[in-house]
Design goal:
This protein has 387 residues and is α/β, with parallel strands linked by helices. The protein folds into 2 domains: 3-150 and 285-356, 3-Layer(aba) Sandwich (Rossmann fold), CATH 3.40.50; 153-278 and 364-381, Rossmann fold, CATH 3.40.50.2300. It has helices at 3-18, 42-61, 85-99, 110-123, 152-165, 179-191, 212-220, 232-244, 260-264, 268-271, 287-300, 306-325, 331-339; strands at 27-35, 65-67, 70-80, 104-106, 127-129, 145-147, 171-176, 198-204, 225-229, 250-253, 275-278, 342-345, 348-351, 363-367, 373-377. The strands form 3 sheets. It has a 7-stranded mixed sheet with strand order 8-7-9-10-11-14-15, with helices on both faces. A 6-stranded mixed sheet has the order 2-3-1-4-5-6, with helices on both faces. The protein has a two-stranded antiparallel sheet with strand order 12-13.
Amino acid sequence: MTRYRSTLAAAFAMAACFGGMPAYAEDVVTIGIISATTGPMAAPGSYQINGFKLAEEDINKAGGVKIGDKTYKVALKIYDSRCNVAEGAAIMERLASVDKVPVALGELCTPVAAAEAPIAQDYKVPLILTVPTADNLTTQGNPYLFRVNAPNAAQNRMIVDFIVEKNLSPVAELTFNNDTGRGAVAGRRAILPETIKSGYIGFYNVGEVDFSSHITNIRNSGAKAIVLGMDEEAGALAIKQIRDAGLDVQLIGTLAMDSDRFLHRLSADHVAGMVQGSAFALTAPGEKARIFTEAYKARFGAETHAFAAQSYDGLMVAIEAMKKAGTVTDGEAIRNALVSVDYKGVTGDLKFDKNNQAAPLFYVTQWCKDGTRKIALPQALAAACSS
């Protein structure tokens, strides 16, 4: 084990020690995991899975977790939904009725999470989301649905703050042609001040690779900025085409574009000056965040990502709830414990509001000419790119 993994595991072991955890565990608690491991969303799905795996490994290397009068190792039951609604719903049904997991975590895609949530409620199995952002997921009164990551509303607020600060008017949009994309656009438009005018608003379909007509419309609208509500692969294609077309606009991206892996699809010249929402800035304050960043790099040989950090925290929150409830079988008791969990995670202090929504830290980061990223917002943590 590397020094970094040793540090993270040691930190967990110390916490476990104070809880009376023995040095080893004989029993296993299986946690259900749903994500996209194949198909067009497999790239962001890999970050999510890696976060879950890192949490599982750190818990087990620390000797397991004491729940009730037993100490358990953690095992993950991972299923691939491929971001397909029908498959996600079937998986949630299987996890609850066949695998009989006490809690499930995941999903990568909002429409799939929406299909899984009522099934989780029917079986009284808490479902903890770590990536989907649609605001309405946690406002429909489902007592078994929780979310540790920031919703669109929180992300939109930070993006709009940047647009207003830089007076980027008109501002155009190019985003997913689905409820998530349209909801995000509507959310931003609702809080933009009258001084910021709308440019072209376009929607693209999954699999679309030619964005030339959108780019023409963006240019004709006179936009000073373009918000790209896109995943990693489509976003890279769109940015290359925008830059190659000589369109001089401020690029504003999503969480998927806040990683070295995204940079490797393009170049530092393509992304220089671009900003994006970030739920886990690499330069974020806090010892837990630093240790997690180093541990992820040591384990997976690559830079970490918000999806990984959120998923790591999600599994840890689930474990905290089971410890608090004293059970690995009673979903209702675990759900009741989740409501009052207060966990200091790598993404910030996590506790749930009346809608079972957490409020983690959120940032806007900016790509520098040398391929590094700095925090642009909040202002208290902002740092300029080196010349």
